[in-house]
Structures are given as structure tokens and as C-alpha cells.
Amino acid sequence: MSRQYTLAQLRYFCAVARSGSMTSAAQHLNVAQSTLSSAVIELESSLGVQLFQRSPRRTLSLSPAGERLFAEALNVLEQVDNLPAIAQDDAKALRGELVVGIFEPLASFRAPQILTAFRQAYPQVEMRYIEGDLEEVRQSLSSGRCDVALTYDVGLRDDFRTTLIEHIPAHLIVAADHPLTSRTTPIPLRDVADEPFILLDLPHTRDYYVDFFQSAGIRPDIRYRLPDYETVRSFVACGLGYSLLNLRLPHDHTHAGLRLATLDLADDLPAISLVVAFPQRTRPTQKALLFERVCRKVLGRRHLRDPFTAPDR
Fold first, then answer.
1. What is the average per-residue pLDDT within 290-306?
2. I want to staple 105 with a disulfide (CB 3.0 to 4.6 A). Which of 131, 143, 229, 276 is the partner?
3. How far, in Å, CA of 220 to CA of 199, rounded?
4. What pLDDT was estimated at residue 136?
5. Is residue 186 a contact partner of residue 263, using CB atoms and an 8 Å limit?
6. Single pTM value for the model
7. CB under 8 Å to 251, separation ≥6 — which residues?
8. Which fold has domain 1-68?
């Protein structure tokens, strides 16, 4: 007769599944890697299935059985972690871990506000962030490395459910001494079409901006392709070209101390949507839904419909 599996083994399994590495999971849990490896092997023996596919490079990916178990194990562990909150009838007693994926340009500007508000409401929940570009966030959410994500809706397919936080229109940024800064009205995109364009070159993001120009019937002179949001701002501040961005910072300085100007666009072009996203295939955890509620309160609109009672896309 096979041995009974334990909650500790399930926790170790979920940690490895999220990180894709025994080493990373052991560091996060502060346990010996041998302890973690033994626990996973014992769990596989108890269940009679192989949970991970091991590659020659020592990377781990979930087997089909592992994928099925991972989704259910997260729910089981959440129910166990929620027992104190249920018994005490106190949301502040909610425990466990919440892993949030976040689009990197949003992280420094949005994440601290959300983390502060969430910790005040649920002080015993450990929140971790996984930063990345839009594709990396999408993959982390799809694979289960994170429970929920704060991201733009660009590149999200039908296998995700989203709650709208806000629509964010694109804006124009130019050097502080650019001639257009003297205007008091929104700027037509055609007025900068012949100048060098500095593209924020990230997966899905680049497609959004290229489509933006196509909608306006303009072929931009892409002079620089840069993968970092702040580097784009610094290039613009130095007078090397103009750019289009969506996230507006509350200041006009770059990390290098230079200034730039933020100008509204006259063109009626598609805005981007800031959303909280969940995997479609699994029911979100209670902590993920509470994160979505905090995001709406801190960042966006109130009285939005529940994304799990009606589709919003």
C-alpha cells in the first residue's frame, strides 16, 4: 500500500512547479535542496505518477499529471491556509502566499501602492511579484508561476479572464526644448512623423505601437529600438527623437536628471487597457480575488461588474 502524502509535500511540489527549479524553490522556502527533492519523489511515489519532466539541463517542467495536480493542490493549500480566517471570522487572519505577475514598466509606479494597501488589509498574506514584459507575464500566468497579474491586455488571448482597471491613451514625449512644447493644443501625430522615432521594443508592446502608426496612415522612422521604458525616456530627453508611451509618470525628469515634455495627441487612436488578469482554466484563489479588489480600489474604477459573472471582453 502506498504511503499517504502530506501537506508539506504538496507545498514543496507547488513551490518547485512555480519556480521550475529545485534550487530556486529551496532558496525561497529556506530548506535544503535534498529535503525538497526527497519530498517531491515521495509525493510521486504516493500518487503513483511522475509529476515533473526532467531535461538534460536540469530544468523541470510539469508533466500532464503534474499540471492537473498543481491547479488542485493550490486550491487545497489555500483552503488549509484560510482555516484560521474562517474560524476567527476575520479576513486579517488570512494566510498563505500570493504571487502576482506585473508588467515591468508598471512595477515601480504601481506595485508599491498596491502592496501597501494589500498588506494593511491582509497582513499575514505573503505577496511576491514577478516582473516581466507582456509576454513573460502572460507565460507566468498561463503556467501557474503566478496567481494573478496586473498588466496591459495586449497579447492576452481568450484563455484569460480580465477585469478592466482603466483605459490608458498613448501620449507623445519629446525633449523639453522641442518646438512643439510651445503649443497649447493636442499634437497631431503627423507633425512628428518625419522625426526619428524611439520605439519601446518589447513583445506585444512593439506591435501595439506599430499598429498605432498604421491606424494613422503613417510610416515612422524607427531610429532606435530599446527594451527599457526609462531608457526610452532618457533618449528622448537627450533630443535623439520622440516616442509614444502610455504610462504617464507624475514628473518630467529621467533617471539621469534630464527633463522631457509630455504632450497629448490629437489623433483618435486606440487606448490600451490596464487589467487584472486570471487564467481562464482555473478558478482564481480567494487571495487573487482580494488582490483584484484592492487594485480596483487603489488604481481604478469602482462598481465594475464581477468578471466571473459576465465576460468583459
1. 72
2. 229
3. 10
4. 92
5. yes
6. 0.74
7. none
8. Arc Repressor Mutant, subunit A (1.10.10)
